[in-house]
Amino acid sequence: MTTEPHPTVAHLTPADYEAIARELDAIRDEITADLGERDAAYIHKVIRWQRALEVTGRALLMASSLPPAWIAGTATLSVAKILENMEIGHNVMHGQWDWMRDPKIHSTTWEWDNVSPAEQWKHSHNFVHHTFTNVIGKDNDVGYGILRVTPEQPWHPVYLAQPLYNALLAMFFEYGVAVHDLELDKVRTGKADPEVTKEKLRAIGKKIRRQWGKDYLAFPLLSGPQFLTTLGADFTANIIRNVWAHSVIFCGHFPGDVEVFEVGEEQLDGETRGEWYVRQLLGSANISGGSLFHLMTGNLSHQIEHHLFPDLPSNRYAEIAPRIRELCEKYRLPYHTGPFGRQIGSTWKKIARYAFPGPKRVPVPPRAPLAGRRPVAA
């Protein structure tokens, strides 16, 4: 059965969209004007802790043949890799810390501990995803090109196995991210420029060789007779980091109450700032938790705030979240949030459900500005 689970946006007038844009722009301007020493101290502290954890994990793995050292070293290295990818790498490459004018923590210079080349990620994520969030046919993050996560996507028998290959995607998520900017659907249909694809593949191959050389050759060799156990520990730490990143990101985009959009080119071209803001609100979900949990998610547990303000420092999202929620209540808009268990359960339930045909969609009358919006199937 298909139902409308949230309040509709039909009640919003053009004046409402303009007011929403003004209020959200005011929040952005206020935070931007207040950035300063405490924010710089925050990111420097996180980087120091991340590097200390990585050094500690690597040191423990020098004795990786001993089970306690292997467990402790693997766990510590896993936390270090999560921090580097989520709270540091992802956010630095978004330009959240460019205002500091520090060349060591700048979106143009940072290369993260991941097989995905930074430049390709910044195009597929910063530009494509954050511009066309949840727009079918424009945002490649809707199902990551291999998953059916909404009834708007045509069903094909290949989706029957998607719970299995979603599990594989979680384990090797960095490789899925690495090929994301290739736009494999265009490669398959011959719409991609072969030379551009080859150049991107060369860059991916170079980055993979660099990462493998570090994690699967250099550090295992440094551990001497513990080569194989250190190799296993590095592999395990990467899997843990990948599964965690996949879980957090999917919880921010695919829980059952998050919407997708069927929007034409003309509507996108004419989309106002207020309409873009509302699309971010409807197409995002938060995960509730404490400060340590938020840190370990890279503050992507505040996915709504991140989609609204992707280049504001992540340490400010918790501060502005109550104000965003109040704005949603004021304009009768949904503010999707819930504990991690509920969000991840809802996401996997959706992936399992849409592995099969259906459900049928109930047409809704067109309405501006989100004329292509469809209700989410229960």
Automatic annotation (TrEMBL):
Protein name: Linoleoyl-CoA desaturase
Catalytic activity, EC: 1.14.19.3
PANTHER family: ACYL-COA DELTA-9-DESATURASE, DESB, FATTY ACID DESATURASE 2
GO biological process: lipid metabolic process
Chain segments annotated as transmembrane: none
UniProt KW keywords: Oxidoreductase
Keyword field contains Hydrolase: no
InterPro entries named in the record: FA_desaturase_dom, Fatty_acid_desaturase
Species of provenance: Actinomadura namibiensis
Domain Fatty acid desaturase: 69-337
GO cellular component: membrane
GO molecular function: acyl-CoA 6-desaturase activity
